[in-house]
Amino acid sequence: MQYNDSGCGLRNLLLTIAYDGKAFHGWQIQQNAYTVQEAFQNALSKIIGSGFDIKGCSRTDSGVHANMYCVSLKTTHKIPPQRLKAALNRWLPLSVAVLDCIEVPPDFHARYSCKSKEYIYKIWNSEVRNPFLDGYALHYRYNIDENLLNKAAQAYVGRHDFTSFCTRDTREKGDFTRNVKAFSVTRDGDMVVMRVEADGFLYNMVRIMVGTLLRIQQGKIPPDGIPSIIEKEDRQFAGPTAPACGLYLNQVNYE
C-alpha cells in the first residue's frame, strides 16, 4: 500500500503498532481513564506538535491486547515516515511499539478502509495457572476438547445477524449482520487458541463467541446449538462474555 506524494500540504500516514493492553482502558480516549490513544497522542505531540488528526482501526476494551493495530494520521508536518517511527518509539511507553509507518493515499482511513480483521483468544488450559500469563490468557482449569469446539464453531462462519453475540449499548446501531470468514480452535500443549476473521465485529462479539463455546464444553449448550442461538437474535441465549485478558487483535487486512 506504499504511496508517494511529492507535493506539499496535508499528508496521510498509516502507522502499524502493537500494544500490551493490560494497563490501558482500551484504545479510545476516555475521561478519567488512561488509554492507548492518549499515550499515542501524548508521544506524537512531543514530535510534531498539536496539528494532527488520528483515526484508529477499531475499538478495543480494557485489558485487550493488539499484535497489530493500525492508525491513520493526517498532518502537514514534513517528518519522514521512518524518522517518525523512531521518534515515537522513543517517547511511547514500553507497552506500546510502532512497527511500521508509511505514506498512504489521502482518502485512506484506518477503520473504514479495512476489509477484515482477525482476533485470537488465548486460553491456558491447565490445572495449574501460569504466573507469566496473568493478564495475557484466560486460565481455564477444566478439560477442553478443541476438536469438539472447533467443529461447533464452524456454525459461526458465514453471513449472519449476530445480535445474540453482542452487548447492546450506544455503540451498536442498525445492521447487526457480519460475515465471519473463518473460525478455528487449536491446541499447542496447554495453550488453546481460538481464531476468528470477519469483515467486522460487534461490541464484545468475539468474547461472547468464546464464552458460548466454553458453555458447549461444559455441556450447558448442545454442540449443535449455535445455529439456534443465532436464529433467536437474543443475547440471553448465548454464553457469558469471556474475560478481556485473553483477547488480541491479531491482524488488520486492507487488501
Provide keyphrases for this structure:
single chain; 255 residues; alpha+beta; Alpha-Beta Plaits; ten-stranded mixed sheet; 5 helices; 20% helix; globular
Compute the number of structural domains: 2
CATH topology of the largest domain: Alpha-Beta Plaits
- What's the helix-strand series? EHEEHEEEHEEEHHE
CATH H-tier superfamily of the largest domain: Pseudouridine synthase I, catalytic domain, C-terminal subdomain
- CATH arch. level architecture of the largest domain: 2-Layer Sandwich
Rounded radius of gyration (Å): 20 Å
Task: Give an account of the 3D structure.
- It is a single chain.
- The chain is α+β, with helices and mostly antiparallel strands and 255 residues long.
- It folds into two domains: 93 residues, Pseudouridine synthase I, catalytic domain, N-terminal subdomain (Alpha-Beta Plaits), CATH 3.30.70.580; 138 residues, Alpha-Beta Plaits (2-Layer Sandwich).
- The protein is 20% helix and 29% strand.
- Strands 1, 2, 3, 4, 5, 6, 7, 8, 9 and 10 form a ten-stranded mixed sheet that branches.
- A hairpin with an 8-residue loop joins strand 2 and strand 3.
- The longest helix has 13 residues.
- The N and C termini lie close together (9 Å).
Structure summary:
The protein has 5 helices and 10 strands, in the order E-H-E-E-H-E-E-E-H-E-E-E-H-H-E. It has helices at residues 36-48, 81-91, 146-153, 205-217, 226-232, and strands at residues 11-19, 52-56, 65-75, 96-103, 116-124, 138-139, 158-161, 177-188, 191-198, 247-253.
